[in-house]
Design brief:
GO terms for molecular function: zinc ion binding. This is SWIM-type domain-containing protein. This protein is α+β, with helices and mostly antiparallel strands. It has three domains: about 150 residues, no CATH class; about 60 residues, no CATH class; about 90 residues, no CATH class. Helix content is about 50%, strand content about 15%. Helix 1 packs across helix 2 and helix 5 packs across helix 6.
């Protein structure tokens, strides 16, 4: 079974598509991605596909027009990159460094970690260096991943469908749909509670924004350009050590720490600069955290699935 999932603005998993195939090959992945593009994506822009480095997937993506920049991109699961890396070099220290390099937001820190890998093993450095950095590193990603580094979320669906894969095809289809609908109902209830609490954003966005807002109190700002709304921000840890400087450009919606770009929520440095320029940091949180936009698609899909399950019961009765 091939599965496509998406994560909403509350970091909740939403199944998008399932397909039952005889084997995992290039033709099957090509067909699946074509159907996904035709029936689910349907021309939407700013889409990021994250997968492992299965040869069939890579070839299907490369030869198809559906996940090509600038409107859509393909990224690799960092866990699979690290696993393959470790299979070649069998060194847990290097594997940990590989993960650190791939998950690091800041370019300077990424370069530092890669230099450490080079000191430890030149061959390991060369192996990673030949992989397109946009495909596997957060620091070169350009904000497409929204901090989703792995395909773990897709594989969580296996837990929802535990035991179903061994059933006959008709039963597999029915139980997959039933469990998916149940999952959507649970997520819809959570969304309703947030709306009833008059939340502007999802729980995830609220917690992230408030956490960074509290950290911003300890920062110091030096303005650069009022027209570009840019500034440098000096941070200090509570113990007095670890002073760092970051550059924030509000007009470009970016900070050198890399977190604003990945999460779509102004980081602590950006919030501090917003305060210095009398800008509402809340007004520049990405709209995919908006509760009205997050909850409505869940209800729409749930209604659609409910109509289908009724039809399926009639067919198989």
């Amino acid at each position: 079974m091939l599965i496509a999932t998406v994560m909403d603005g509350n970091q909740q998993l939403l199944p998008l598509a399932f397909a039952i195939i005889d084997e995992e090959t290039y033709p099957s992945w090509k067909w699946f991605l074509q159907q996904l593009s035709r029936h689910v994506i349907r021309g939407r822009r700013r889409m990021c596909l994250i997968s492992d480095r299965h040869g069939g997937i890579i070839k299907a993506v490369r030869e198809g027009p559906d996940f090509v920049s600038p409107h859509r991109v393909h990224r690799y699961c960092l866990r699979h990159v690290c696993s393959k890396f470790n299979s070649n070099f069998k060194n847990m220290v290097l594997k940990d460094l590989c993960w650190q390099a791939g998950s690091e937001y800041q370019l300077r820190e990424f370069n530092r970690i890669m230099e450490e890998i080079k000191k430890q093993h030149v061959g390991a450095f060369a192996y990673l260096d030949q992989i397109n950095k946009e495909k596997w590193t957060a620091s070169h990603d350009g904000g497409w991943r929204c901090d989703i580094l792995t395909t773990n979320m897709s594989e969580c669906i296996n837990g929802v469908l535990k035991g179903a894969r061994r059933l006959p095809v008709s039963a597999l289809v029915e139980i997959t749909l039933e469990r998916t609908i149940h999952y959507f109902r649970v997520q819809a209830i959570k969304g309703h509670k947030m709306l009833q609490n008059n939340q502007l954003w999802t729980d995830f966005a609220c917690k992230m924004f408030i956490s960074w807002q509290q950290k911003a109190v300890e920062h110091t700002v030096t303005k650069y350009s009022h027209s570009q709304q840019s500034a440098s921000v000096v941070t200090r840890r509570q113990n007095g050590h670890g002073i760092n400087t970051h550059v924030v450009k509000i007009a470009n919606r970016e900070c050198s720490c890399g977190k604003w770009n990945q999460f779509g929520i102004p980081c602590s440095h950006a919030q501090k600069v917003c305060g210095a320029y009398n800008i509402s940091a809340a007004s520049i949180v990405k709209d995919y955290y908006d509760m009205r936009l997050t909850t409505t698609p869940i209800l729409s899909i749930l209604n659609l699935c409910s109509r289908k399950i009724i039809g399926m019961i009639q067919i198989f009765s």
